Amino acid sequence: MLKGLWEILELRVTGAAPARCLNRWAAADLAFWRLRQESELDFTCRVFASELPALRREAARAQCELRVLRRFGLPLLLRRLRERPVLVAGTALVLALCLFAQGFVWFLRVEGNRRVSSKAVLRALEEEGVRFGTWGLSIDSEELKNRMLNRLPELSWLAVNRSGCVATVLCAEREPVEPPVEREGICNVVAARPGIIRELSVLDGFACKAPGDAVSEGEVLISGVMEWAVRVQATRARGEVYADTLRSAELICPAETVKKVYTGRTEQCRSIIFQRKRRNLSGNSSIFGTMCDRIIEIKEWRLPGGWPLPVRIETVTLLEYRLEPAALSPREAETLLNAEALRQTEEQMTAGTVEQGSAAIQKKNGGYLCRAALNCLELISRTVPAEPPREEECNGETDQRGTD
């Protein structure tokens, strides 16, 4: 490695007895290396350029001839660069710009976030002035942390570590706080709908039903009051009861609808987005006075390695259409009404799923009438206050469990 600091020559030695030349070089304490024999009469090696006169003198005494094959080394490179001052100045300028660019933040990376999206963190950082091209020394990590925690209450801690032109944002999220469970008062768990119990889970209280039992609306499933032989135990009943239920829906839709008919007229609007600034590259951004669909295509620019640049090209394709009346076929009406019945049923349930269903479609009064029956597995438990036990029923002893 250090030999590259001097000018090096690669020589070819030719003679009747090349070994005599090597012996004379070694006796004169001349350095040579990378020795390689090409044939019986010649070999190649590397030497220092400063020792070339002595090498030639000893080679001539051994009746050998030297030929320089190539030259390399730092002094030779410097002599060549001295003849090209523009290249030297340009190289120095590029190196200076590279060193100066290291002081800016060109790329941001978010780590440690699970529930809070990286885009939300980067958007909040941009509003605080930390974005593409920010001077790195202007970032006060402690002050930035306090401002970011005010903007994003979901975070409990944040730090910005800068390594060259890459800033890594480390986040720690707050653990979600579950609402406290109300434990005071005496309550029962009753059925919100009639059904057949499939699963029953009791957390507090006393089960009055078992899986497989049929229950009606308002019937007690888990009691908060239990009468024993000598005392009455009261608590706030808690639990979950899932049952097989039957829900019905009746929906009507007209026999005619409207559909889109595309006219074939299209327009494309292109714009360039740098961070949050948009520059429109097209004349118009819409088809005025008409209805149209918008197809948006965004092209992001990335460097090798996947580093994104804050420059995007957005292409919006506008497809003009008009609305025309069209008849709704029975099959289309059945698909539409079944999907709507399923959506409404799922919204009405507190928790659960629709397992199967059937529907009957008939045409009536210029429209379609759908009567659907849906078999559901849903949560039917609901907590209601219970009547406290009377003193004459307690025989003077009451055990009420409530707050922990």
For the structure shown, list the relevant keywords.
single chain, 404 residues, alpha+beta, Alpha-Beta Plaits, Ubiquitin-like (UB roll), 4 domains, five-stranded antiparallel sheet, four-stranded antiparallel sheet, 25 strands, 22% helix, 47% strand, elongated
Structure description:
It is a single chain. This protein has about 400 residues and is of the alpha+beta class. It has four domains: about 80 residues, Alpha-Beta Plaits; about 70 residues, Ubiquitin-like (UB roll); about 150 residues, no CATH class; about 50 residues, no CATH class. The strands form seven sheets. It has a five-stranded antiparallel sheet. A hairpin with a 2-residue loop joins strand 18 and strand 19. Helix 1 packs across helix 2. The protein is elongated, with a radius of gyration of 43 Å. About 0% of the residues have low confidence.
Total number of strands: 25
Strand order of the largest sheet: 13-11-17-23-22
Mean pLDDT metric: 84
Q: Which structural category fits the helices and strands?
A: alpha+beta
- In terms of DSSP E residues, the strand content is over 45%
Helix content: 10-25%
The number of helical segments is 8
Quick recap of the structure?
With 404 residues, the chain is of the alpha+beta class.
Topology:
Blueprint: E1 8-15, H1 18-27, E2 33-37, E3 42-48, H2 52-61, E4 64-72, H3 74-82, H4 85-101, E5 104-105, E6 107-111, H5 118-127, E7 134-135, H6 141-151, E8 155-163, E9 166-173, E10 187-191, E11 195-204, E12 206-207, E13 214-215, E14 220-223, E15 225-227, E16 232-234, E17 238-254, E18 256-274, E19 277-280, E20 291-302, E21 308-327, H7 330-348, E22 352-364, E23 367-379, E24 381-385, H8 391-394, E25 398-400
Parallel strand pairs: 6-9, 16-25
Antiparallel strand pairs: 1-3, 1-4, 2-3, 5-7, 8-9, 10-14, 10-24, 11-13, 11-17, 12-14, 15-16, 17-23, 18-19, 18-21, 20-21, 22-23
Helix pairs in contact: 1-2
